[in-house]
Amino acid sequence: MTVATTDLDRLKSGADQLFSKKKLAGFSIPLVIIAYLVYIFFAFDVPGLYSRADMDNARTLVADSYSYKMHVTRDNRSAEVDISIEGRRNGTYPEDGSPDWVTRGEETVIDLGQGHIATFGPEIVTYTIPGYGTFRAEPGRSGVNATFPDGDLPGWINASKNRVAITTEAGRFTVTRNRTEVFRYFNGWEAFWFTLDSPYYGLSVGEVAGRAVQGEAGDIFTAFWTNSMWRHQDVAWALFETVLMAFLGTFGAGLIALPLAFLAAKNFAPLMAVRFAMRRMFDFLRGVDALIWTIILARAFGPGPLTGALAILVTDTGTFGKIFSEALENVDKAPIEGVQSTGASAIQRYRFGVIPQVVPVLISQLLYFLESNTRSATVIGAITGGGIGLLLTQAIITQQDWEKVTYFIVLIVLMVMAMDWISGILRRRLISGDGTGH
Predict the structure, then answer these.
(1) For residue 126, is pLDDT > 80?
(2) 404 partner at 20 to 30 Å CA-CA among 55, 160, 265, 338?
(3) Residue-range domains of the chain with CATH
(4) Which own/partner pairs from 321-324 qualify as long-range (CB within 8 Å, at least 24 positions apart)?
(5) For residue 352, is pLDDT > 50?
(6) Residue 407 Cα distances to 57, 164, 231, angstroms
(7) pLDDT at 335 over 80
(8) DSSP assignment of 176-226, as one string?
(9) Each residue of 83-115: pLDDT tens digit?
(10) What is the mean pLDDT of the chain?
(11) pLDDT of 252 over the 90 cut
(12) CB 265 within 8 A of CB 325
């Protein structure tokens, strides 16, 4: 009885100790995670980041993604007035044309809506602001001779001797010695389909469709395809270059990695020195990120899509070499022995006894990495100067056409979704023989 009681006490004591350890681990792990998050909070200066954040700039950036600016610009030296979309030369209205809210003449009147009226006269420019009054300025060589309504200047007016900037809910009015400019925002992507010089600009969908039925379909497509503002032709080619970089890099790496994988597999390379050398080479190739290889190869081969494809190829050769060698080490010996019993050569044993077993793994990994590398090719293209990544970088650097940045990002997302969908179909067809998705 005493022995049984002692054993029971020992078991109870052991259970209590085990429970205490698990309880300690259950509390300590969350505490460690919380302590690490607190460290990150201060190490990355999150409070400072929040204090430096400018919500006005954030709102402007968001607004620019789905809107565009119309620029009405006066050359203060010649008094000439230009009207353009985003200030672009290929988006400039002809001298005898203008939007309905701008009236050209000896005195150009710009109706910004809500009672805001800007006027470009021969010598003086004015801006009438409801609830505030009329601002007048006479720009010249000595600077901007400005006259404001009585009272202190509000915070939305920034004035100096050589520059005055007025920002209201209706738009922005800027005067310098050499130029007077009015910005007005509109929602949408202006001239996305046709440029101002196209005969189809400003037509409704029904009118364009009617002209297409009347035999102008080819001209309509050409006008859209050669749009000099949105560059649809260049964008389509850039998307093709991005997919091409990913395709060449991925499948080129697969073709190189497969034969090398045999030299890294235990059951196909009996010499340990050979296996060790191949595995370390794979570690080296995949250990260096594709972006680093991109910079290195760009110095060697110059910028271009081929450099991006080579960067993907080098990195994925190391990754595929590891994956393929592990797949080869797990093959079943029975099919190989069956092929060997027929008197087949070594190459035939590999072809009919080994390859069919690893094909599902090879195809699955190749297609998965093709989808992943399509995204990577966007960033790589920004460095090597090719693909949609280059156009995206150019649009971001200009800090003007943020609606184009949105357009390119939407296209990139659609491209990745399409590659995911296509690779899924190919995996089902090539691996399971089912292309229906069920």
Answers:
(1) yes
(2) 55
(3) 68-187 (no CATH), 191-226 (no CATH), 232-432 (1.10.3720.10)
(4) 321/257, 321/260, 321/261, 321/264, 321/278, 321/281, 321/282, 321/285, 321/286, 322/264, 322/279, 322/282, 322/283, 322/286, 323/361, 323/365, 324/257, 324/258, 324/261, 324/358, 324/361, 324/362, 324/365
(5) yes
(6) 20, 33, 11
(7) no
(8) ESSEEEEEEEEES-TTSSS-TTSTTTT--HHHHHHHIIIIIHHHHHHHHHT
(9) 998 878 888 888 888 888 999 888 999 999 889
(10) 84
(11) yes
(12) yes
Q: Is the distance from CB of 227 to CB of 85 less than 8 angstroms?
A: no
Residue with tokens 């509390």: 27
247, amino acid identity? F
Q: How sure is the predictor about 436, in pLDDT bands with cuts at 50, 70 and 90?
A: very low
Residue 412: which residues within 8 A CB-CB, separation 6 or more? 375, 378, 388, 392
**Which one-letter DSSP state was computed for residue 105?**
S
Task: Give the type of residue at 161.
Answer: K
Short-list 198, 163, 171, CA closest to 71: 171
Strand pairing category for 67-75 and 143-147: unpaired
C-alpha separations of 369 from 328, 362, 377, 387, 419 in Å: 19, 11, 11, 18, 11
What value does the mean pLDDT take over residues 173-191? 89
Give the helix/strand (H/E) hosting 300: helix 290-301
Single-letter residue type at 222: T
> Is pLDDT of 5 > 80?
no
User: For residues 317 and 314, what is the distance between their CA atoms, to the nearest angstrom?
Assistant: 5
Token pair for 13? 């004591």
The structure tokens 């565009």 sit at 68
| Backbone φ, ψ for residue 332 (5° rounding) | -80, 135
Q: Which two tokens mark 286?
A: 């995949």
Q: So what's the pLDDT on residue 438? A: 44
Residue type, 6: T
Looking at residue 20, its pLDDT comes to: 66
Proportion of the chain in helix, strand, coil states, percent, rounded to 5: 60, 15, 25
